[in-house]
Write a structure and sequence with these properties.
single chain, 522 residues, alpha+beta, five-stranded mixed sheet, 15 helices, 31% helix, globular
Length: 522
Amino acid sequence: YGFRGEALASIAAVSRFTMTSRRRELDEASLLRVLDTGRKQVQPAGAPPGTTVLVEDLFFSFPARRKFLRSERSETASVVSVVLRTALFRPDVSFTLRSGARSLLDLDARTDPLDRVSDCLGPEVASALVPLETSGGHVARISGFIGLPSLHRHNRTSIFTAVGRRPVESRELINAVIIAYRGLLPDRRFPVAVISVDLPPQYVDINVHPAKKEARFRDPDSLTRLLRREISIALFSSRREPPASSLSAAPDDAPSVPAASPHHPPGGGAPESTPPAPPPVESPVRTAARRPGLWHGAARFSPPAQAPAAGERPPSPGSPPPPASPPPSVSADFLYIGQTSEGYLVVEVAGSLRIVDPHALHERVIYEKLRKSGSRPELLHLLFPAVVSLSASELPHKEALIDVLRSVGFGVDDFGPSDVSISSVPSAFEGGDPALVARDVLDALASGSSGDAPAAASRLRDAALASAACRAAVKLGRRFSAQEAVDFLQSASRLASVQVCPHGRPTSVDIDMVSIKGRLSR
């Protein structure tokens, strides 16, 4: 893209600056060196065609400005982000980025733009993308790739936009992408997209930002409507019907002969012309009574009668029955009533009816266990280590990822140029997938949560603990026996604070008995 007129002069004024340039038709290059005093030296040099700019000791003559630079890790991550955004929209250009002796990026020129996306974001992401292309007849030409609804992230940093193949951070385009996915993604999740917009020069102003990071459109409403429409068309076209064999295959426990219907008689003959009979209308009371799991696990039940022990006289018919031991659904603090069909636990406690989200509550229990165990918890060693492969955009965060996971008790090792290996996990994390926790931490690092301040490191550690607790917690819908539910609720009641999960969602909702009586006119 070249430089703005004042950019080279500004860079040269705060660094040790050298530029070598040679036109293809000339035999020798010219070398320009800017000295400390501001004077310039120009001399002939040998170099291949093209231009090379070397910037060394940035801000060496402005120590006050240099103090505002972040750590080498953070600044390197920023540089990688800039190069990656540029490389995504220029697959025809090769990019190489090195930090010291370490190669951060080595991207060959590609003829297929999807190959460049795979190089930058990883093959797993590329395999879940669908092409986006305007059909024609519009002033704007939109092209790129968008993720399937199954591919989503914690933040919007994976939405890449460009105008004229120049990366820009356009709020209008990013918001249009998010709106197009509304109702298709889980709550507080964002899609992955690589979108380039080409417009005639009179329809866009690229000079509204000193670094050309933003763009101003002449008719943003029409452009965003077109983008939302094209995304919807692309997502709808990406749907694939399952093959006929899978549609006709019956489960193992299903009858081998399908039941007859008015349209398709059992003999394989032609369908009848009579419309199907409407299904019988059942009483809602009878239907609800037959639904399994509507109230899973009864709270009040009679214990089974026990035979009298040897030498013990059976009770007479008129004598009062002996006191029965409390059933497993009865606790000193609450009465367990049952479980709804969706998996919520229902208990009576302190004159209220409490509805408990077992996933959120279990999250809080695991979070507190992980937090108290620190970086040296009781470990579970994995039979097969979990290997997490990092894409080119994630490589700058590799060391930070290892540090954060180790700080919460995971056994993590560097496993090659772009991989990390997780060989052990805290015992409280039993049953969770450590690779998903690593991905969550990478998302937090990419969103800018990293930094040198202790507060930033603490936020990253809390995010890793919350992710680990969420990944290991029971899922809503898991069925509990009465004894399991009581034991689970009793263990959670020992914690000092269980009102909310680590993400801030309430773990339970109380309905006052007075309100219930009022609603029932009692």
